[in-house]
Amino acid sequence: MDPTQLLIVVAIAVVLVGLLIARQFSDYKQQVAQLDPKKAKKPREFGVYTVEEVAKHNNRDDAWIIVQHKETKEWRVYDVTDYVDEHPGGESILAHVGSDATEGVYGPQHPVTTFLLMDEYCIGKLAAGEEAAFQKSQ
C-alpha cells in the first residue's frame, strides 16, 4: 500500500471514529436532558401495592412495572405511563407492564442514567409477603 492509500484509509477511519463519538455524545446529551428538573412530572404518592393491583395497570395508557432493586433487593413499583412515548427503545417498554420488568430494566441496553431517571417514576413498593406470591406467578 503506498503512502497516499494509507493516508486515505487513516482519514476515513478518523472520520468514522469521529462520527461514532459524536453520535454517542448526542445520545448522552439526550439522556441527561431527560433528567432536567424542569421536566419533572407531578409528584407521585408513595404507596404499598399488591401484585394484583399492579397487574391491572398493563397497557400503554396505564403502565406500571415492578422492579427488584439490585442493591436493597426491595421490590419497587413504578408508574411509567408518562414515559412510554419518550422511551428510546420504543414499544419494548410495554413488554412487561403490569408485571416484573427487572430483567429488562437491568439489561445491557440501558445506560447508567436510566436508574437516575427511574426514581422519578417510583410510586411505591410491593406489600409485605407479595414478593413470594409474585415470584410464584411467574
Automatic annotation (TrEMBL):
TM regions (residue ranges): 6-22
Domain annotation Cytochrome b5 heme-binding: ranges: 46-127
Any Pfam family matching the protein: Cyt-b5
GO molecular function, one term: metal ion binding
Keywords: Heme, Iron, Membrane, Metal-binding, Transmembrane, Transmembrane helix
One cellular-component annotation, GO: membrane
Record's keyword annotation contains Cell membrane: no
PANTHER family per the UniProt record, alphabetical: CYTOCHROME B5, CYTOCHROME B5 TYPE B
Assigned protein family: Belongs to the cytochrome b5 family.
Record's protein name: Cytochrome b5 heme-binding domain-containing protein
Biological source species: Chlamydomonas schloesseri
